[in-house]
């Protein structure tokens, strides 16, 4: 099973040009996500660009958080008249947008309990023999 996951992960790396443009951290996340999806049997070639976007969003959150940690939520600047002004750190919006993307991808790929349920699909309720017989008459 592990060998199969390795082979399929290598195929996933080669089959999408999106992977080639990812940085090292995003590539690690991409490989981790591909392995998870392969192990669940849900990875399709058409999903690979989305997996790359998910991986990049994970890195964007980390980079944005580092900027927030270093500079704070509010940045002091100067307006055109030379007065002090305070603006929200742009990294706050970047982090928030990336977190939304991650949440959407996590649901889409089955990384959450609800997402797993949606991927599996709900089993239709079992019908009694009499109900099946009645439907067959219609």
Describe the structure concisely.
The protein has 138 residues and is mainly α.
Outline the structure in words.
By secondary structure, the chain is mainly α. It has helices spanning 2-15, 17-20, 24-40, 48-71, 90-109, 113-120, 129-137, and strands at residues 74-78, 84-88. Strands 1-2 form a two-stranded antiparallel ribbon. Helix 5 (90-109) packs parallel to helix 6. The radius of gyration is 23 Å and the shape is elongated.
The radius of gyration computed from the alpha-carbon positions, rounded to a whole number of angstroms, is 23 Å
Q: What topology, given as strand order, has the largest sheet? A: 1-2
Overall geometry = elongated
Biggest beta sheet summary: 2 strands, antiparallel
Portion in helices: 55-70%
Q: Give the DSSP E fraction (strand runs of 2 or more residues).
A: 5-15%
* Average residue-wise pLDDT: 80
Order of helices and strands: HHHHEEHHH
